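Appendix B. Raw example, untouched.
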Amino acid sequence: MVAAKWPGVDPQWSRTIRVRSTSEVDDPGAIRRWHVLDNGDQLTRSELTPIGTLLCVHGNPTWSYLWRTLVSAGASPAHPWRVIAVDQLDMGYSERTGTFRRLADRINDLGDLTDALGLEGPVVTVGHDWGGVISAGWALEHPQLLAGMVLTNTAVHHPSDTPIPSALRLALHPAVHRWGTMTSDAFLRVTHSLANPPLPSDVGRAFMAPYRGAGRRAGVGNFVADIPANASHPSFPALTRVAEGLRGLNVPALMLWGPKDPIFSDRYLKDLISRLPHTDVHRFEGAGHLVAEDRDIATPVFDWLAAHSGSISGDSSHVVPSATRGLPPRDPAEGGATTFRPLWDSLGELAAGPSKDDVAVVEMAPDGSMSRTLSWRQLDQRILDMVEGLREAGVGQGSRVSLMVPPGTDLTVALYSCLRLGAVVVVADAGLGTKGMSRAVKGATADFLIGIDKALAAASVLGWPGRRISVRDLPRVRRRILGVETSLDALAKTGALSRATSGAKRVEGHHVVAVDPDAPSAVLFTSGSTGPAKGVLYTHRQLAAMRDTVAATFGIGAGARLVAGFAPFALLGPALGAVSVTPAMDVTAPRTLTARALAVAVAAIDATVVFASPAALRNVVATRDNLSGSQALALGNVKMLLSAGAPVPESLLAEVQVLMPGASLHTPYGMTEALPVTDISFEEIQAASADAAAGTVPGAGNGVCVGVPVHGARLAIVPLAADGTASGEHRGTEAGVTGEILVSAPHVKEAYDRLWMTQRKSTSLTGWHATGDVGHFDAAGRLWVEGRLAHVVTAPGGAVTPVGAEQSIERLDAVRMAAIAGVGPRGTQAVVAVVETVPAVPKAGPAEPQLAGSVRRAAAEAGVDVSAVLVVPAQPTDIRHNAKIDRTRLARWASQVLAGGRTGKP
């Protein structure tokens, strides 16, 4: 058969089937010739019994070749599935019928084919583009066979008040349509150009092959013409039947999505999720329309089939929401329904108690003055007013609300109001940068966006989703330009009026709001220091557990006074009952915190607790000479300092201790997925360092000591293999075993948002979250972090973790910061040290011999053989924390330099 010549296709898969048509557009009894790729005979020859059948349907203008990786993978003994990839009539190598076939006809045609094949269940449909709609239509008409559904970039509904994507509008234009889709091959070439990375030339030729000549492209043009652009289109009723029918479908579903698709964007994914809320979703950042070409989809498809083997075998009654799949049952001891206290619980108590008129939240102006304050009573009232205002604006349970407001009273009110409504807050701070922010907010597909002017302007320019709400009332013209519907101020007034007229009031100090403890409450984005930022989904129960863990571990509760130079803690303060203030700084750029700004904020509330990142503390220390006597005295009254987000050097803590002599310094370790995980004080760090130097405690050293688990948390280690991977069973807290760090705690995230593969990997060991960090325990039960799993160097002698060698190098007087990176193929990588010197070098490149020798000797003391030493004027750091070195970027740069390329800025 003609398809056999194309790469990735086994000639034995290709077959032609004669099918009696029952379509109204064909003559009665007409026989149509179909071409399919089918691995059924291959399975039979291998004496493999298929678990079921994948019925794969391509869209326009592709053909069954799109599914070749699934056909191949299905023939594996590990997961034998019969895979039938069809060429729709008038497409691929199937018959050119000479008739115009609409959506309803194509769904009927597919049914004719499966009848002719004698297809039996279980069947899982797989569809892309218009093949997604057609496969879904077939699924709805064959419930007795259907066991599951896989969809890649497609759509089943388009809002009537929104134009269809511009590319499709152009293809439908009368002046373009026939030439673009049939006379020429322009439509095919444009579609193929969407691949990222570009299609290999032989693969591109394979996709073009069935459509050589205008006479073979009629189906391509007819497919475009059959797009139901509005309700008057003949295929609109059929599309609507499919779209609404999906709402009643109770089988496992998987969506694999390329978010860079200019046609089927994330808004179509959001619509599909609303119709199939139990679906599993994985978005491949960077992938586009041809997601099956851009990424390996065979692995996740067959992993997903294995994960749902029970449902696919016939029992789909136990389908549960995607967010909870793959997670262990909750331990009642970790906080069941009877002990659940929502995050905002203490606000109502404080608002009705004796301290109701005490200050709760303070907002600092850029000049360091207090620009705004709210008492506990005012804060609670403002939140209740906002709840009503937001509800009237359409915000409800499950609504996603993107918050783009700096820490302060407005953000606090907006956050707690949304949570009380049962909405899901989406938080992706500006520290991710424009591209990172855009990826995050588009991927989260918020229903509403609440923002300051700068955020609203970005939303307009970059096309961020969500109905827009400004913080303050805006002039009419600016509202129109930014697409703003209303403001927080207006919503608070509306809510206050609504509460007054309805007689809403507090009963015995408590305002009861029904909330499901295990419903989603927040999507918080990671820093993106090891790849695109990931959305981390939390439930109400987990946010409340985070509050309780912080309170129990650090003793922060009612009466505490908190200066938060880190946005999450600014938002957690009211939940803890702590008076909260954010100093005059840009919280998305921690280095903007000065000693004076910190001292002024401390003095404003007579603070007892300070939270600041390592980058912020560096600048506080660097600007300490600007402190007045009273400001220095204020810092001296602080009782506790917390610093996290990146390792905090012992030398920096020593300098901070001089500034805050009365404070107990703590450096909790954690991540967006679980904050905090461990805790350690400065004194304990010093003791650990002494143990490492003396060699008296087995396992002490070679990393950053982050202490012992916080209240309610458990830790374990999965050993690191020579190839830099961590798999298999964990070894608990056995001393000296280096591997990936696992954590289990009530406040660990629920799931990664719309990242099914990532979530599955992170919970591969039931009951544990795999952190992606590597480290080990010492004999005293303390955890030492050695770096990120993604940054482990796979040298010929085995895996090399970076932190121990970096610490040893940084003890050199000439080195400010050091980073270890791997260059070359995995398993044979050379270890490269990249250092930032004191004073800084003017130009990046190879280190001078004396420094290189010192660096090599220092690394050797940590057991690491460094092959090359490079210098940089400044280490590239992640843009959120300004403290985590971007080792992946450094590795790429070092590879170029050592290969004789340019030595410009990394």
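End of appendix B.
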